[in-house]
Amino acid sequence: MTEAALEKPVIDKKPNKFAMVISCLLAFPLAAVLLVHPAAMLDDNGAYSHRAMMFIMIGISGGFVHGVGFMPRHWFWKWLFSPFLAWPLMIWGYYTWFIA
Q1: Residues of the chain with pLDDT under 50
Q2: Where are the domains of the chain?
Q3: Which of 22, 48, 56, 63 is buried most deeply by CB count within 10 Å?
């Protein structure tokens, strides 16, 4: 147990500050719309697509995780919260928001 506590953490390359700002700028408005006025995300029938909302919220979470500079250690969480997955999901959220 002591060896794990004394082990040096693996330091990845420096985060791209510009990409982090983009992640935050994409995530904040979508999160605000979902919290303040969720009816803006309704489709033509007046219903939510729960599957789409789940993916959009994963994208928002990834935007916040990447935007604040948190670096997950496990490969799955790195992939899930990476901007490569979060940005397209958030763009899908903006598309859903603006066509509603």
Answers
A1: none
A2: 15-35+44-97
A3: 63
